[in-house]
């Protein structure tokens, strides 16, 4: 169980990150709306998508999971701040699902980083 739980957390966060890519890379109207509202459309949408793809891949590789968790904390921390400052909790009547998913992803990434804390290397 000690090895399965961290793996499941990494898989969950990677799935959340990777499943949102279709919205960013296909210019889904909700994604375009969000990035337009924060003034980052289209480059911020694409750059965020690429960053989330990289973070998702890094999370799935055991030796780089800590890097993926740190990258995810930065990306999702930015998303949470945009929700709290410019976007609001609810986007286009979604009931706040994007915001709460971001908060969940942030928490799970923090747990992953805590689990992997002994592997963190600073240059």
UniProtKB/TrEMBL annotation:
Q: What is this protein called?
A: DoxX family protein
Keyword Membrane in the entry? The reply is yes
Query: Does this UniProt record's set of keywords contain Transmembrane?
Result: yes
Q: What is the annotated localization of this protein? A: Membrane
Q: Where are the transmembrane segments?
A: 7-23, 43-61, 66-84, 96-115
Pfam families found in the cross-reference section: DoxX
Keywords attached to this Swiss-Prot or TrEMBL record, sorted alphabetically, are: Membrane, Transmembrane, Transmembrane helix
An example GO CC term for this entry is:
membrane
This chain's source organism reads: Aquimarina aggregata
InterPro entries assigned to the protein according to its UniProt record, in alphabetical order: DoxX
* Membrane topology category: Multi-pass membrane protein
